[in-house]
Amino acid sequence: MVRKLFTELRSIYSGHNIIRIRIRMRDLIDPGVLRYAVDTTMKRYPYFCVEIKRDPELYYDENTRPVVITSSLSGVMLNSEESNFHLISFSYTDNWIEMDISHAMTDGTGAYEVIRTLLYYYVSRRYGLDLSTDGIRIVGDEIRQEEWEDPVLTAENLPTPGRTDMPQALSIIKSAGLEEKRSPTVYSIAVPEDEFMRFNVENDGSPATMVSLFLSRAVARTFPESKDVIRIAMCINQRKALKAPLAHQSLVGGAMLEYKEKMRSWSLDRQATAYRGMVFAQSQEDKVLEGVARMKGISQLLLSKATEQERVGVAGMIANLSAKILTATVSYVGKANYYDSEKYIRDFRVWTQSSGDTILIEISAVNGRFTMDFMQPFSDPLVLNAFLRELDENGITYDLQDVERLELPMCASV
What we know:
35% helix
C-alpha cells in the first residue's frame, strides 16, 4: 500500500497543522479499554495507519507500529519517533480523551468518523453494552475504494477558477495593536442546542451563518472607526460537489462573507438572510469545484518545484496571501451524531490553528448543546466580549465554560 501525496502537500509544506479533538467522558478513563478501543479503531482506518516517506516524491507507506497513547494531554510530536512516525495519536488524563491528527490527512468530517468508531468500541467495553452500529464504521466493514482515493487528484473537467483579487481584510491583531502580545488562547462557549436552533429558524439563519454574523457584528462593534473589510470565511465541505461522500482527505473550501457597510443598519434577520444568500451562491456545485480546481492547481504547482526549499517558500507565500484576505474563519462540521455513546460525553472540543493571525471559531453539536471554541492568537478578550454581548442582547443563553492557553502538538517536518 503506497500512495503518493497530493491534496496533503499544501498543508505539509506550509506548516502541517493539527486537529485536536478533546472529549470529557462521564467517568475516569480506563487505560486498558482505551488501548483496546484505539487498536480496534485503527484496524478500520488503514489509510490513517501510515508514515510519510520520500522516493524522490513524498508518499504514504503502511505503518504497522502501534498508534501511541500517552497519559498526558500534552500529546506527542506527530510524524516523529515519539508518535511511532504516525500522523495520529491519542492521550488521556482523568476523564478526558484527546485525539491529535494531521490536518493534511483529513478534516473535521474525517476526524469525526474516527471518533464515532473509537467511542463505539470504548463505551461498549467500558460499560459492557451492546450498542447499535448504525451509522458507525466498524471493523469488518468493506472499506470501499472511495474512502481511499483522493478525489481532487482524480477530478477532471474542473471549471476554470475566476479571479480572486480581494482587498485585504480587517486584521484584529493589527487594529488592536496586539502584535507584541501574542498568547494563543481558546475560550469555550456552550449554548443550548434547541434554543439556538429555534433562534436560527426565527431569524432565517443556520448555526454557522449565525455565528459568522455575530462574529462580524462583534468585530464591527470593537472597531467602529475602521474602514477595512470585515470578511469571514465559512468552511464548506467539498465532498458533495466532488461526488465523493466517503473520501477521507481534507476537503474544505470556504464561502467568503463580507459584512458590508450598507448592511450594518439592517435588522438581524435581514442580515442573516443576506449571509444565507452569500453562502447559497458560493455553495453551488460549480463554485465549489472552482475551489477544488484552485486546490489542485496549488498541489500541481508545488510538485513542479525542483527543491523542498522552493516548495516551502511557495506554500508559505500562498498561506500568507490567504490569511491577509480574512478577518476570521468559522467552521461547523454538522451535528456530531455519536449515537448511543453520546450520553457518556460531558464536554466536546475541537481545536486547531487559524490562518495567520486571524480568529477561528470551531462549532460542535454534541449531547444537546453547541460548543463554540473561540480561538485567537492573543489573550485579550476584546472581540470575545463583543461576541458574548451579541449573544446576550439577542437573548441566547450561554456559558463561558473555560479559558485555556491554546497548545497544540507539533508535527515534524518531512
